[in-house]
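Class, study these two lines:
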Amino acid sequence: MVDLFSDELKRRAIESSLFLSSYELLKTAIFQLPKTFFGISENDRSAMTDEMWLSINEEFFNSLKKYENEKNSKLHASLRWLQDNDVTKSIFQDEDFLILKKLKDLRDNIAHQNFEYILAGNFKDQSNFDIFQSMLDMKKIHDKLSYWELKNIEQEQNSRFLNEDRLTFKTSYLVLIELFVSIVSDSKLPSHQYLN
């Protein structure tokens, strides 16, 4: 009989919850950056006429269409758009798309088989994965998204960001992911080793 109040089950419940939350933050960040680039913000919506809002949204969605195909999700299309519209032309690499696919697959497994994971620590069709390493992979992509925002939006629009760099500029998404990684890593190794 399984002890439903064991520390191991509690740890897996926390890990799976934080992983799912982290993945949702990742999706939001990937979708939000191109919108920010186009000046689309729900906060600005009330100040715009319907025609202005639709025009900006249409320009944004049309720019993403060329990246969508049968193999690519809208998430991949948004990340590809970020890659192609990067002033440094070096932030996102092809390996990031493979990581994103792996994260989505793991997200789907956890979301649909969460109870099995919490009880057994694996899934029916996948026993070789590491949530902690996946969280680190997610942090890596968030770090790149944060850097993209610094280079392509903040430094382009505001001179006070010119002295910021990858180590000093962090989006709120990245800060949250670092917190989640530190919580998951508490049972592994000291969290500060993974956040730098």
The chain has one domain: 7-193.
